[in-house]
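Subject: for your reference before the review

Hello V.,

The reviewers asked for a structural picture of the protein, and I figured it would be easier to keep everything in one thread rather than splitting it across files. Below is the amino acid sequence we used in the manuscript, unchanged from the supplementary table.
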Amino acid sequence: MTTTGEYVFSPTWERETERLRTNEALWDPGTLERFDRLGVAPGWSCLEVGAGAGGAARWLADRVGPTGRVVAADLEVGRLAGLAGAGVEVLEHDLRTDELPAGEFDLVHARMLVQHLPDRAAAVARLTRALKPGGWLFLEDTDSLPLFRSAVSEDFLQDVRAAGYGLMRQSGHEPRGGHFDLRLMLAGPLVDVSAEGRVVVLRGGSDQARHYQLWLDFMRPRIVAAGLLPDSRIDEALAEMADPANWWISQVLISSYGRMPA
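And here is what came back from the structure prediction:
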């Protein structure tokens, strides 16, 4: 179960596992490239908060090797159990309330997590305190406004985006979360703070497109109950997402970086 503000996501275990894995298919390649760019190396101590299905933590464990350390933290750790044999420490953790080990990590990373939390400043402060001197905080959250932009039409799936993300915002999700990550990092003790954005151009019917189908299928009852869209429109939109003739862009994922002074 994943909690975002007052809104509790409770899909079936299988559906949530599939959502996490399709999220990794969408975003892991760019995240792993940025780990490499930050210089993650053998012997590093790394903390992955909101570890999900464990893809990023597994890569980090391979990179830091037996002389390094990787901690994978999440509210729900059942999907991370298999990482123990890969040299990963699994930690059940709620970033809203639980403190992290202070001053222990060369890298602290969280993706698409902080923008869901009611007190984002407190969460970023907790993550920052976990850094060693010279350690990097690497946050990734989204700006959802460009989602579904496409050559198909100016309004391709825009009614779906507005309905789904509008309801999520009412429940605590910040659709411009990546921008606020940067602002919070600039206001804290970190140096060398910078940010960049990336999008993925995806094709209907792909694993990446499946991620958005799962999102819409989960949001369907709330969208329909609120009178924002009828069931027939949801069915139509799901079919559009499954059509390989359709290509569109993801949200902008904003990567923000900052280093604890040595």
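For the response letter, the relevant points are probably these. Residues 134 and 147 are 35 Å apart (CA to CA). The first helix runs from residue 13 to 38.

Happy to draft the paragraph if you're swamped.

O.
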